[in-house]
Amino acid sequence: MRDYDLHHHGDREVGPGLVDLAVNVRLPRPPSWLRAELASALDTLAAYPSSAEATRAVASRHGRLPEEVLVTAGAAEAFTLLASAFRPRRAVVVHPQFTEPEAALRAAGHEVSRVILSEADGFVLDPALVPADADLVFVGNPTNPTSVLHPAASLVSLARPGRVLVVDEAFLDAVPGESESLASGVPGVVVLRSLTKTWGLAGLRAGYVLAEPAVIDRLRAVQVPWSVSTLAGVATVACCRPSAVEEAEKLAIAAEADREYLVSGLTSAGVDVLGDPRGPFVLVRIPGGASLRTRLREAGYAVRRGDTFPGLGPDHLRLAVRDRAVTDAFLAALRGLL
Question: Residue 26 has what pLDDT?
Answer without folding.
Answer: 85
